[in-house]
Amino acid sequence: MGISQTVFKFLSSQKKAIGYSLMGLLTVGSEHLFSLSAFKCPCSNKNYTYGLVYLFVPALVLLFVGFALNGSTWQLFTGCCVNPKKLFPKGKSCHFFHAFCQITLKAFVAPVMWLSVVLLNGTFYECAMSGSKNLKYLEMLCHNKSNKCLEELPKVACGQTSLSSWETEEILLTLQAESQVVGWCVIVSAAFLSLLITCYGHCQSNTSHLQKRFWKIYTEKEKEQFEKYFEVYATKLSERNLKSFFENKKLEPFPMPSFRAWEEASALDSFNINQQIFSTLHKLVEDSMKENDSNEAQDTMVNLGEGETV
Amino acid sequence: MEKFRTVLDFCLSHQKALSYSAVSLLTAGSERLFSVVVFQCPCNSWNTLYGSVFLLVPALILFLLGYLLNVRTWRLFTGCCAPGRCCCCIHRRRCWRYFRVLWLVTVSAAVAPLTWIAVALLGANFYECAASGSSLLQRYLCQGRGTQCHEQVARIPCGETLPQGAQTFVSLRAQSQVLGWILVASIMALVLTVTCINRCRSPVSFLQLRFWKIYLEKEREVFERKAKEHATKLAERNLKCFFESTEPELFQTPTNKDWQQISSLYAFNTKGQYYSMIHKYISANRGTSIRSTEEDVFSPALGFVDGTDVNETGTL
């Protein structure tokens, strides 16, 4: 095997790790960009609001983007206004919440990364907390400092204060230290929650480890095949239509799945351990097989009946 | 070209050692980055908390990540509390096996956090900051002096020098580095001793162990390939039936019981030379249970069998 092939194989086996690392680097980069270009602490009584906006609003935006970029969100919600019963099918009402929870957890990764990076950096937190309205906290910050400390505190983040340089430095270092400690707490809680949730998911699972692996591979391959079939059928159908349009010929019949078949195939994925069903499409196919078998059995019985009569 | 090929072959044959080295290097690199770019000792009453957080919390995070990203963790926990199955230790032997594998996972997950702590101690920034805020040290250094001395001690990491007449100057950086080296040396000694003992107690010979490791690697690759082929065939059959409304053909796929048998933890038995659960299962009568019997041996030297597994992490 060539070297480039080996390297490519190694990289594609570490897709997840590379993806998360890139996301992390992107977060750090954008935080630096915002910090340098757009962020300017107002150094007034508006510090608290301004700092909190910079801390949480980009996280919210990333959460929405996370929802939007996840294909499962659209699989869940497409057509739900037209047919609300689709969200809670008979016997599977918890399925919607289960799927929504999974989508939400995946969407939370980017906001948590943003929060960790900005808290470890400290700039936004410093600005926010220097304008805090909590008197006890401000007194703790101004402990052992000159009388005008409380008044000058909001201006500390801009360096435009009349306090001595060592007082300013100490306040800034304390705020930065707080920010970084909170940042580490956020990261460790996220890691702990992530481990607990994954553990719970795996422990409760009915399937064995290797069967789960095969299921993931099957889902991937089914997706690829779907794309391939879509392209082939779309090409054939459009060729047929345009040929008939330009050459003014009679339309040849073109078998396609019915509206109901598309609806059924678009339902939420279900993995049935007892019947070894790996996807919604697999279930449809197996069900149709069972229908055909029972129809055949009926026909055979009828024939036998006829035969016997004859 | 030949040289590259030789290097690549070397890398592939020492994958485990290289991957642990890579993890250690990455951890060491990040520690240096954090130490230089992010860490700034506040030089006040926050010192102890700040320094300890930087020293220990990233190690905890790396430890949790070590569990999360280790395949063996999920091999162990998948389905253990499934509905209908008792989540308790009825069979002591099976329980003991689980704890053994869990121990191996813990040891594997401890590499990165210990590297972080060792490199952080050698770098000395975090320890110096944490120690200079500790009330014990402040009391020791400031005997007979006022609270101003305490504040001066807290400012040592920011370059403050103690006034003349203070107790013998204790170099916090030197303390930290000595602790760091002791940690590194003890971990190395422990690892070497434990590996030696495990290898001594190995039920199989050196060459067979070597072959075994290579067999598992190849089995993993072939499993991935065959699983992809099988999945592609099944997907094609389903899609063909969906689009063309044709009758689906019967498709032979392993049953749930087959999957469960090959997913269980490996148990070595001197009576049969089986190199994996798949090997064991298809060699025995298919359909019979191949779970542990009384004669099975669980040697720590064979811990790699449950670890060399398909490329799957359990993360979201």
Summarize the structure.
The complex is a heterodimer of chains A (310) and B (316). Chain A has 310 residues and is mainly alpha-helical.
Explain this structure to me?
- The complex is a heterodimer of chains A (310) and B (316).
- Chain A has helices at residues 3-13, 15-38, 47-69, 71-77, 94-107, 109-121, 123-130, 135-141, 149-152, 165-204, 209-247, 259-265, 280-309.
- Chain A is mostly helical.
- The termini of chain A are far apart.
- In chain A, helix 3 packs across helix 5 and helix 3 (47-69) crosses helix 7.
- The longest helix of chain A has 40 residues, at 165-204.
- Chain B is an all-alpha fold and 316 residues long.
- Helices cover 65% and strands 0% of the residues of chain B.
- Chain B has helices spanning 2-13, 15-38, 47-68, 71-77, 92-109, 111-123, 125-132, 135-141, 147-154, 172-200, 206-244, 256-263, 277-283, 304-307.
- In chain B, helix 2 (15-38) crosses helix 6 and helix 12 (256-263) crosses helix 13.
- Chain B starts with a helix and ends in a 9-residue tail after the last helix.
- The chains are: A mainly alpha (310), B mainly alpha (316).
- At the A-B interface, helix 1, helix 5, helix 6, helix 10 and helix 11 of A face helix 1, helix 3, helix 4, helix 11 and helix 12 of B.
